[in-house]
Design a protein that fits this description.
The structure is a homodimer of 705-residue chains. Chain A is built from 24 helices and 29 strands. Chain A starts with a helix and ends with a strand. In chain A, strand 3 and strand 4 form a beta hairpin. In chain A, 39% of the residues lie in helices and 19% in strands. Chain A is α/β, with parallel strands linked by helices and 705 residues long. Chain A has 4 domains: 5-212, NAD(P)-binding Rossmann-like Domain (Rossmann fold, 3-Layer(aba) Sandwich); 213-297, Rossmann fold (3-Layer(aba) Sandwich), CATH 3.40.50; 298-464, Succinyl-CoA synthetase domains (Rossmann fold), CATH 3.40.50; 594-704, 2-Layer Sandwich (D-amino Acid Aminotransferase, Chain A, domain 1), CATH 3.30.470.20. The interface between A and B is large, with 88 and 88 residues.
Chain lengths: 705, 705
């Protein structure tokens, strides 16, 4: 038996705090178990009642003279430890859902302790706990429902849900069954305070659950984001995880923080991490259900070539727009054979050749036309999936149409999402399809989005297989440690020279440079580097060198060098009389190039992350940067670069030369290693990096410890 | 009587081609009229039937011995003229819907002529026509329904619909009434081939229709886009027009063109024109209905400060995200009084102070808390509207909650959109609100989008009042005409000098420049302008001067000038031996600045349009340009600039100087006038324009005739 089976497959349940008062949760829980047809035994417990919903009520848990697997605890918080002592005494209780609130979520010390006390008893008694402050679980297989949500008449399906909000989770479940064609689900869970079982336990359980083909998740934010992502990545390699994560805007994440008390990470880190883990993020509750449903019912497309087969222009164009506005799926190019067969099959008004991969069969198409056209298109090896749309004219038989289409679709191992539009009239047609395992949707854009998300899932799976990270390591770790230890001892920042030295251990090349400690020294070293030069003041106390007048560029000869050297020293002293000066950094003037930024941070929730973006003022406005959790593989690093909005600038747009993307990718990988392997480093900022046709040059670097 | 009343308020209808065959439209039409309760008289016409749906059937239109207002024509196309001759003979028929297809939409010459012939008879008989190839109208007031859509059990409401697609229009109507809480509408129309009544007639009719409070439109593309926009602008000043226009992607507009045969304009021109006309564009069918419904039921907000009042975190955050991800609405800052009153009212778990304008009342809130909190927030003068969300716990009474909330809301003249989440359980609560005129929605994001679109409508209305365009006119029209006529006679392009001369007539300043026709002439004129200079070859045959080696910059003195002059002449001759050379343009080297582009085009559908964008390679990738139909007012021109993604670059980001946006706005207005007033000009391209802290400089210009 798997651990969470103790909850989902409990065959007897005691409800502590059961009630005949309709205003109480203890009433609704019993009602849900009884009226919605839970197949096991139910024992209400309440010393003040004799009978609830026609079932004998017990004064205490100890009085139940039959086995009890699971207890649902809906009594005031202070009474909960006593209940667990009773359960311990019984010895047969294996699991508990604590619906009661008033524990650690209040952040009141006594209440936090109360929760700890309960868990201690539970551990001693070998009882696994969900909650407190949670509504528990639903299982459509045995119709077990521990919630006090308004009776959700569940329908079995092949996706499972987990929610960080009980009310929103219940809403999603209610919405799913209230659709014109209900969306079934297998299991459902809300874990509340996670004092024992947490959200990771639930998704791990779903991973191995036979009934669960895809996982839908509602998320507000989590403290252990890195761990979550690592587990999710592991699961997503086998089963799709679709997530609705709120806090997409700054305003929204602010509000989310007030709600859950979670540390809510920057949304761009979530976005990046989901992508990296192969977790499909969606925007709305509808898209969450639609996507999880589509994936749970159908094979994934093998590629991104999705045909649109419609009988009405409007819905067809709406679907094509969904494809055209994204960069995930494309319309296929039909084979000549397919075009020929479609021309032979379809009514003369049909539009077949106008837009590649788009067929408008016209309103004259009948049930057979639809079914045969589906077959022809599915047989085309240039097609990976179909969005099939019809505003069924009244002279068609929706049921027949659904049955014939389903039979056609089932012959091929390719996904088809269907949208029949005409209200109640098409109900039987949609049901015929759904019964045959073909997902149907209310709106053309929803059918299209579900299919596009299946393509995204395919692409993520393809990428997950290519994530070996490199094994770059510091050439000389001791050297790095020494630099950092010295700065730590002296409690100073690292200078640019020290930052360059650390980066050099990961083969990030800054070309020639030298630190000069006197004018004479500078003149000598300048000769070796060659003019023209840049001079920069080096001081652990001057972070913003330009602001301090500490940078002079285009120094052309030794005369200018001497003047410039004195000038930067003078400026530095004026800027900060006490600044410790290490000397002046001499670097060559480098040729112009496209400027980029590569950096890394150590985030409180996501740990080490690496970042790349374009430099300069225009780009600052656009915030054209991409993050990923470190370390990154070559594929991931390249993905970060290619997904920048301005990537075409590197890629030879308008006859410009292609720039050295490989070199950029290499630096991203090395910096991602650097931040992972050196835990004292908080932040790295190599800015700017000039990118050339061959190679790159890093111009400045800052490592923060 | 208003002209379209002949259709929407017909009191007797003859259905030509009525049928007992369920597979025929003529069956469904009769069925819809009878079963859905049309209040007037219905006369089926079919020589082969005696009775249809229990109603006496007539052999011919002429046989009906009672008045006939409206005829619905569902017979094969070639039989239609005969029907109209019958109608003419009767003399009482005022209107006709031709449901039959097979006319001009086939583009077969005889069929186009057939349509013309029908319309000729109709005109002679004083019969107004909708169609052919259309399904006509619905009116929920008298339950008139001329369509053969699967019986849509209409519900009266206060928005009206018009669709360019019969099937999608019917789908929208079916979807609207099949919602958990149905969305009513007043009138509905599909106009097909528009041989007489067109879509503009319908929206003009809706404008003056008392029952219609807002107009929802489904659009694929139209030929007379400019006229449509001008009419729409006029209507939108009084009644909201909400439009779902497909073809948002290039792929989608390609597919749309195949469907309607309409000239489908670039989507960015539609987008701009909708904005300019105050037409609210939406993305999905759901958003179309939600927005039109919200606007039809409620007062508009006076500003953009929208509070979110929730009882559950999840839905609350989803709504806040919708606000935070756009730039339309903001959360308000409550007055201290409001905060104090909320603190006194709400349960201790409520979150009131954490995020400005966001209140999470907590699950402990009861019906009274909701109603009182609504009042307190609506009374705050810093609040323009509320999104109100609740996952009703089972201990609340949804009906009571809806009634109490509605009563609270009705006391104030501010809009509130409501989302109750919990499936069927909340049905009565939603109905209580809807009956009181408060719009409710299925999902929190939908309630939020509807409210945000109400704010957009408010902002558009505010802008519509400020669209007086300037009265700049050419200083010397004859001079422009002479330049253009000369080029037309010689069949050559305008040179840069001629383009500059035309622009100068609208006070677009290029600073000093001169055309030199010999080295000596150049030396003389260079002296007057001052070094350093730029030299450019001037030839009507060399459009791309740089490609021809026809541009040399930074010419510092007379020696360099002479060499450069010979060089550009030589390059030009090598580039094109036959090119006619007008001379060499001398311009000063101008200081660096932020480069922009201002231009204009004469579009086939939208007529003269003006555009502005940033220059350079980065921006070419971003396509950061905005269009509007010309002429533009100062407010509109400023809007074009401020809505550029990179606008912050002009606006003094990161301590940079603010640049002269006023000067940019002025040039946009002048160029918009120029293209409007000079019909021979096809395109104008002033590129680049350098923008400084004070003023701008145009560096190059191209006027295409």
């Amino acid at each position: 038996m798997r651990e969470l089976d103790k909850f989902f497959y409990a065959s007897s349940i005691a409800v502590i705090g059961a009630s005949n008062d309709e205003k109480k949760a203890g009433y609704q829980i019993i009602r849900n178990l009884v009226e919605l047809g839970y197949v096991g035994e139910v024992y209400p417990v309440n010393p003040k009642e004799d009978e609830i919903f026609g079932i004998k009520c017990y004064a205490s848990l100890k009085d139940i003279d039959a086995p009890v697997d699971l207890i649902l605890v809906s009594v005031p918080a202070p009474a909960v430890p006593g209940i667990f002592l009773d359960a311990k005494e019984r010895g047969d209780v294996q699991a508990a859902v604590i619906l009661a609130s008033g524990f650690s979520e209040t952040r009141i010390p006594e209440r936090v302790e109360l929760e700890e006390a309960v868990i201690k008893i539970a551990k001693e008694a070998n009882i696994r706990v969900m909650g407190p402050n949670c509504v528990g679980i639903m299982n459509t297989e045995n119709r077990l429902d521990t919630t006090f949500a308004a009776g959700i008449d569940k329908i079995p399906g092949s996706m499972s849900l987990v929610s960080q909000s009980g009310s929103l989770g219940a809403t999603i479940a209610a919405f799913s069954v209230n659709q014109a064609v209900p969306v079934g689900f297998a299991k459902w869970a809300h874990v509340g305070n996670q004092s024992d079982i947490d959200v990771l336990d639930v998704i791990k359980y779903y991973k191995d659950d036979e009934k669960t083909k895809s996982i839908a998740m509602y998320m507000e934010g989590i403290d252990n984001a890195r761990e979550f992502i690592e587990v999710a990545k592991d699961i997503a390699a086998e089963k799709a995880i679709v997530v609705l994560k709120v806090g997409r805007s700054e305003l929204g994440s602010g509000a989310a923080a007030s709600h859950t008390g979670s540390l809510v990470g920057a949304d761009e880190l979530y976005e990046a991490a989901f992508e990296q883990a192969g977790v499909l993020r969606v925007d709305t509750i509808e898209e969450l259900l639609d996507t999880a449903k589509a994936i749970s019912m159908q094979p994934l497309p093998q590629g991104n070539r999705i045909a649109v087969l419609t009988e009405a222009g409007g819905p067809g164009i709406i679907s094509v727009d969904e494809i055209g506005m994204g960069d995930v799926a494309v319309l296929p190019k039909f084979s000549p054979e397919t075009l020929k067969r479609l021309r032979e099959l379809l009514p003369p008004m049909a539009i077949i050749d106008h837009t590649d991969g788009y067929v408008d069969m016209s309103a004259a198409a009948d049930e057979r036309h639809h079914a045969e056209a589906l077959k022809i298109v599915l047989e085309d090896e240039n097609v990976d999936g179909i969005i099939h749309l019809s505003v069924l004219p009244t002279f068609l038989n929706p049921k027949l149409m659904g049955e014939m289409s389903a039979e056609a679709i089932k012959q091929y191992d390719k996904p088809v999402t269907v949208c029949y539009l005409a209200g109640e009239f098409v109900q039987e047609g949609r049901e015929a399809l759904e019964n045959a395992g073909i997902p149907t949707f209310e709106m053309p854009d929803r059918a299209a989005k579900a299919m596009i998300n299946m393509v995204r899932r395919r692409q993520m799976l393809d990428r997950i297989g290519k994530t070996e990270t490199g094994d770059e390591q510091a050439k000389d770790r001791q050297k790095i440690d020494a630099i950092i230890e010295k700065a730590q001892e002296q409690k100073v920042n690292l200078t640019e020279v020290e930052s360059r030295q650390i980066l050099a251990e990961y083969d990030i090349d800054f070309g020639q440079y030298a630190l000069a400690t006197s004018i004479e020294d500078a003149a000598l070293k300048a000769e070796a580097i060659g003019y023209p030069l840049v001079l920069k003041i080096m001081s652990p106390d001057i972070i913003h060198k330009s602001d301090a007048g500490g940078v002079i560029v285009n120094v052309k000869n030794v005369e200018e060098l001497k003047i410039a050297y004195e000038q930067v020293m003078k400026n530095a002293r004026e800027y900060s009389a006490d600044a410790r000066i290490n000397g002046v950094l001499l670097t060559p003037m480098l040729p112009e190039g496209t400027e980029m930024i590569i950096g890394a941070i150590r985030d409180a929730q996501f740990g080490p992350c690496v970042m790349v973006g374009f430099g300069g003022i225009f780009v600052e406005v656009l915030k054209d940067v991409n993050f990923k959790m470190a370390p990154v593989s070559r594929v991931e690093a390249r993905d970060m670069v290619e997904k920048l909005k301005l990537f075409p600038v590197l890629d030879g747009i308008r006859g410009r030369a292609k720039l050295d993307v490989d070199a950029v990718v290499e630096v991203i990988m090395r910096i991602s290693r650097l931040i992972v392997e050196n835990e004292d480093i908080k932040e790295i900022d190599v800015n700017p990096i000039r990118v050339y046709e061959q190679g790159i040059s890093a111009l400045d670097a800052r490592v923060i410890i």
